[in-house]
Amino acid sequence: MVLAALVPSATAGFLASCQLCVPEFDFGGHTLVADCTANDPGNSVVSSLDLNYCIGNDNGILKAMDSGFFADSCNACYSTPTADGDNKAYMHCICNDQDQNPVDTHDIVDNFDGRLGCFGGKWLGDDGACDDWYLPWYLVGIP
Protein backbone atom coordinates (compact mmCIF):
# COMPACT_ATOMS: atom_id res chain seq x y z
CA MET A 1 0.00 0.00 0.00
CA VAL A 2 2.72 2.50 0.89
CA LEU A 3 4.64 1.68 -2.29
CA ALA A 4 1.66 2.59 -4.44
CA ALA A 5 1.56 6.02 -2.84
CA LEU A 6 5.19 6.65 -3.84
CA VAL A 7 4.69 5.84 -7.53
CA PRO A 8 2.84 8.49 -9.53
CA SER A 9 -0.25 7.24 -11.29
CA ALA A 10 0.10 6.90 -15.04
CA THR A 11 -2.26 7.88 -17.81
CA ALA A 12 -1.97 5.09 -20.39
CA GLY A 13 -0.92 6.37 -23.80
CA PHE A 14 0.71 9.77 -23.48
CA LEU A 15 -0.99 11.43 -26.45
CA ALA A 16 -4.35 11.48 -24.65
CA SER A 17 -2.97 14.05 -22.19
CA CYS A 18 0.24 15.41 -23.77
CA GLN A 19 1.14 17.71 -26.63
CA LEU A 20 4.46 16.98 -28.35
CA CYS A 21 6.78 19.99 -28.23
CA VAL A 22 8.81 18.83 -31.21
CA PRO A 23 6.56 16.90 -33.61
CA GLU A 24 9.51 15.08 -35.11
CA PHE A 25 11.78 13.00 -32.87
CA ASP A 26 14.91 14.98 -32.24
CA PHE A 27 18.37 14.81 -30.64
CA GLY A 28 19.62 11.63 -32.25
CA GLY A 29 16.17 10.30 -33.01
CA HIS A 30 15.28 8.98 -29.59
CA THR A 31 14.10 11.78 -27.30
CA LEU A 32 10.45 12.71 -26.82
CA VAL A 33 9.58 16.12 -25.39
CA ALA A 34 5.99 16.96 -24.47
CA ASP A 35 3.82 19.26 -22.42
CA CYS A 36 1.63 16.93 -20.33
CA THR A 37 -1.35 17.53 -18.07
CA ALA A 38 -0.52 16.91 -14.42
CA ASN A 39 -2.84 15.30 -11.86
CA ASP A 40 -3.40 18.74 -10.29
CA PRO A 41 -6.11 20.31 -12.52
CA GLY A 42 -4.88 23.24 -14.58
CA ASN A 43 -1.19 22.34 -14.26
CA SER A 44 1.06 20.89 -16.90
CA VAL A 45 4.73 19.92 -17.09
CA VAL A 46 7.16 19.91 -20.01
CA SER A 47 9.36 16.83 -19.71
CA SER A 48 11.63 14.74 -21.89
CA LEU A 49 12.15 11.02 -22.17
CA ASP A 50 15.02 9.12 -23.75
CA LEU A 51 13.26 6.28 -25.59
CA ASN A 52 16.34 4.10 -25.06
CA TYR A 53 14.79 3.34 -21.66
CA CYS A 54 11.55 2.19 -23.28
CA ILE A 55 12.35 0.48 -26.59
CA GLY A 56 14.73 -2.27 -27.63
CA ASN A 57 15.93 -3.94 -30.80
CA ASP A 58 14.99 -7.61 -30.58
CA ASN A 59 16.77 -9.24 -33.52
CA GLY A 60 15.86 -6.35 -35.79
CA ILE A 61 12.37 -5.73 -34.39
CA LEU A 62 11.67 -2.57 -32.42
CA LYS A 63 9.47 -3.26 -29.40
CA ALA A 64 8.71 -2.16 -25.86
CA MET A 65 11.61 -3.20 -23.65
CA ASP A 66 12.66 -1.82 -20.27
CA SER A 67 16.11 -0.24 -20.78
CA GLY A 68 16.30 -1.78 -24.27
CA PHE A 69 18.80 0.82 -25.56
CA PHE A 70 17.72 0.40 -29.19
CA ALA A 71 19.97 3.28 -30.29
CA ASP A 72 23.04 1.10 -29.63
CA SER A 73 22.13 -0.95 -32.72
CA CYS A 74 19.70 1.30 -34.62
CA ASN A 75 20.17 4.64 -36.35
CA ALA A 76 18.50 7.10 -38.71
CA CYS A 77 15.37 7.17 -36.55
CA TYR A 78 12.53 9.42 -37.58
CA SER A 79 8.87 9.91 -36.86
CA THR A 80 5.96 9.90 -39.24
CA PRO A 81 3.06 12.31 -38.95
CA THR A 82 -0.35 10.88 -38.24
CA ALA A 83 -3.84 12.27 -38.57
CA ASP A 84 -4.94 14.58 -35.79
CA GLY A 85 -6.68 12.73 -33.02
CA ASP A 86 -5.61 9.21 -33.95
CA ASN A 87 -3.33 8.94 -30.88
CA LYS A 88 -0.39 7.38 -32.72
CA ALA A 89 3.27 8.42 -32.63
CA TYR A 90 5.22 6.11 -34.91
CA MET A 91 9.00 5.88 -34.84
CA HIS A 92 10.99 4.24 -37.64
CA CYS A 93 14.68 3.27 -37.48
CA ILE A 94 17.31 1.40 -39.43
CA CYS A 95 18.26 -1.62 -37.28
CA ASN A 96 20.59 -4.42 -38.34
CA ASP A 97 20.98 -2.61 -41.69
CA GLN A 98 17.27 -2.79 -42.56
CA ASP A 99 14.38 -0.38 -42.27
CA GLN A 100 12.11 -1.64 -39.49
CA ASN A 101 8.37 -1.59 -39.13
CA PRO A 102 7.50 1.41 -37.00
CA VAL A 103 6.88 1.14 -33.28
CA ASP A 104 4.00 3.18 -31.84
CA THR A 105 5.47 5.12 -28.93
CA HIS A 106 1.95 6.06 -27.77
CA ASP A 107 1.44 2.44 -26.72
CA ILE A 108 4.71 2.41 -24.75
CA VAL A 109 5.02 5.88 -23.18
CA ASP A 110 2.73 7.09 -20.41
CA ASN A 111 2.02 10.36 -18.60
CA PHE A 112 3.09 10.12 -14.95
CA ASP A 113 1.57 13.21 -13.33
CA GLY A 114 2.76 15.44 -16.17
CA ARG A 115 6.02 13.62 -16.88
CA LEU A 116 6.74 11.28 -19.76
CA GLY A 117 7.73 7.81 -18.65
CA CYS A 118 7.63 4.11 -19.33
CA PHE A 119 7.87 1.00 -17.19
CA GLY A 120 6.99 3.00 -14.07
CA GLY A 121 9.26 6.02 -14.54
CA LYS A 122 12.41 6.94 -16.48
CA TRP A 123 11.71 10.60 -17.31
CA LEU A 124 14.75 12.80 -17.72
CA GLY A 125 13.34 15.74 -15.79
CA ASP A 126 11.33 18.89 -16.09
CA ASP A 127 12.43 20.89 -19.07
CA GLY A 128 11.02 24.40 -18.98
CA ALA A 129 8.74 25.37 -21.85
CA CYS A 130 8.05 23.78 -25.21
CA ASP A 131 9.46 26.87 -26.91
CA ASP A 132 12.85 26.04 -25.38
CA TRP A 133 12.91 22.85 -27.50
CA TYR A 134 12.01 24.40 -30.85
CA LEU A 135 14.78 24.18 -33.41
CA PRO A 136 14.42 25.30 -37.02
CA TRP A 137 14.14 22.43 -39.50
CA TYR A 138 17.52 23.27 -41.04
CA LEU A 139 19.27 22.60 -37.71
CA VAL A 140 17.72 19.17 -37.16
CA GLY A 141 17.69 17.95 -40.76
CA ILE A 142 13.91 17.68 -41.13
CA PRO A 143 12.90 18.08 -44.80
Automatic annotation (TrEMBL):
Ranges for domain Cyanovirin-N: 13-118
Pfam families (UniProt xref): CVNH
Cross-referenced InterPro entries: Cyanovirin-N, Cyanovirin-N_sf
Source organism superkingdom: Eukaryota
Name of the featured protein: Cyanovirin-N domain-containing protein
Lineage of producing organism: Eukaryota, Fungi, Dikarya, Ascomycota, Pezizomycotina
